[in-house]
Each structure stands twice: as structure tokens, then as C-alpha cells.
Amino acid sequence: MATVDLALLRRTAVARSLETFGDLQSALDALHFVQADPIRAPARAQDLMLRHRVPGYIAGELEHRYESLHVEEAFFINYGFVTPSLFDLMHPRGSAASWPAKRRAQATSLLAYLAERPEAHPRDVAAHFAHGRVTNYWGGSSSATTHMLDQLHYLGLVRVVRRAAGIRLYGSRALEAARDTLTTREIDARVDVLVDVIVRTYAPLPWSSLAPLVRRLRYAVPQWRARLPQALARVKARLPHATVDGATYFWPPEMRLDGDVGDQVRLLAPFDPVVWDRRRFELFWGWAYRFEAYTPVSRRKLGYYALPLLWRDQVVGWSNVSVIGAEMTVALGYVAGRPPRERAFRAALDAELERLRVFLGLARSDGAPKRKRRTRESGA
Fold this sequence. Notes:
Layout: H1 6-17, H2 24-31, E1 33-35, H3 45-50, H4 61-65, E2 72-75, E3 79-82, H5 84-90, H6 101-115, H7 122-129, E4 133-135, E5 141-143, H8 144-155, E6 158-164, E7 167-172, H9 184-202, E8 205-206, H10 207-215, H11 228-238, E9 241-244, E10 247-250, E11 265-267, H12 278-285, E12 307-311, E13 314-324, E14 327-334, H13 343-359, E15 370-375
Parallel strand pairs: 14-15
Antiparallel strand pairs: 1-3, 2-3, 4-5, 6-7, 8-10, 9-10, 11-12, 12-13, 13-14
Helix pairs in contact: 7-8, 9-11
């Protein structure tokens, strides 16, 4: 095997993560998990990620085709779309048995209501039951029935049937009985599979990122959180790894350290696996990328929804893309203060922007989209 250095790890991460698949279902089956985010700037994160991995993918396609796909909305290490096999590994997470009697009765009535219809809008559920309002996790007020739907969805007792204008429509789900008969060895085997999904998604992963991600499985399998420390201990024995520049990186046994990145420019979603791990980002590319959508405007350095700009295997800058009517405007920033000088970069950037226009459903451009350019700001 070639000497493992940072360049090899970086090239492998880019080439392997950006593998393309024949169709959307094949991509979902291979990825197992696609993180979701509701912000649309210029499209939702899940769509921005899938467009690089499914040729011809159009913004909104996952939502539009959701009912016909073998996929579930669920919480893994973050909220997103998971394969049925991954969903089954995480459930059942528990039941409403420990809830207060009144709340258990409400949940029973709500589940019966959902069982009588193919789907239900949270607004209609709230109108039917009028359970009042509760304080949600962010300190605001929300419908008690919507809050209960979210809890039952997390437990796996209801499912998202589809979305209408971005709103989740729910339906009933029949879960198998709690797996009280699983042995410790069987539980550990299931947890190891979940760890492997994390590693395949974000590899090569430095230990400083892998360890907190494994601990984050307490949200995926709260019923087995006591087994996570042992799972973390097994990682070092199970997975290949190498230490480069003081950081130890882990990857799946089947992963080959190599890959062709080609002369391509890609604008990546903030949650794309290539750039998701901010620790690895700084190790690979030597500068700090931050998601600033929730940062006060006066403190933003890169922009509201800056898309990392990947050239070959180097993130050389970022872009903020906006669409008004049928016009796409692109604001570009470069870490070096200027774009790469190669003619190949300019051609690749134009090709990526044209792909982005098609993905967004905009008319084909007769010329280059409007561009603005700025240099890296101090501290970015």
C-alpha cells in the first residue's frame, strides 16, 4: 500500500464520497443516510448533496418521489433520510408506557386516529384533538399534538408518509415488539453496524471526530446507550487506521486509499460528507469553514449559506448562490484572495454553474450567470 499521508487521505475522501450511482434509489441504498436541512439557499441540503451523486438529479426530487422510494425520514446522528434496514437497526427505541396516564391516553387516541386514515396533516390532527400548546425544545410555543407526533415519530410509532409544501404528513406504523430477547453480543453487533455507517459516510475520519460521533449514537439508540463506550473501544481493533501528522484516521476495511478526483469544480452543501466534519476540514485544507446561517449578520465572514468550493481535491473558496425569478446570482470568495489561475479551473467552474442551473430548474444560460467575487476576510 502507498505511504499514507495527508494528500492520499484527502484525495481518497473526495473521490470516495463523491462516487456516482445509476439512480436515486441506488444512491440511497449505498449511502444509508442523507442528512436533511430545511433551509433552501438555493436548495435544501439533501438535494445539494444528491445532485453530485445521482446524474440528472433535480432539486426536490427526493421529496417528490419519497412515497415510491425505499427510504424513511428518521433521526440517526442527525435528522435525515435513512434506508429501511438502518431504520430497523435503531428501533424500537421505546414506547409511551412511561408517559403520564393522561398523555398515554392522548397518544393512544392519536395513534387510533392515524390508523383510520392513510395520512394526516399536523394541522388537522391539532384541530381534531385540540390538546393545547406546549413549550418546545427551542423555547417557543407549538401545538401539543404536533409535539406528540414528533415524539411518536422519534419512537418509530408513526412515520412520515410524505410532505406537502415542506410539511410532514404522518401515518401509522406497526413496529415489531421490543427486542428484549437480544443478547449483549447481538446488541453489540447491531451497534457496530451503526458505527460502520458513520465511518463509511465520513471516512477517513480522525479519532477526534469519530469518538464524538459514536457517542452521538445515544440519539439513534437511546435504549443501548450504555453499550456505546464498548463500541468505541472496539473501533480501534476492528477498523484500519493510520496516524498522519499527529492525527489518527479510521476508515472501513473495504475502502481502498486512492481515487481519481479529476478536473472538476463542485459547490458542496454545508452538510455534505466531504466537508461535514469541521475538524477534518481544517486538517485537510488549512482554514476554518463555519456554517453561518444562524450567525448574526454583522459577524458573518463567509455568508448566510456559504457553499464550499471544491476544485479537484482542494477546497479553495466558497460561494453564496441566490435565485430571484429565473436569474441565478453567484457570489464567490477565495481563500487565496483570487481564483486558481489555470484555464481548466475557469472552464470547470462554468460547467458546475451550468449544472447548478439545470438542477434548480432554471432555463439554460445563454451566458455566464452573474458573479461577484470577494477575497477571504480576516479570520475566515
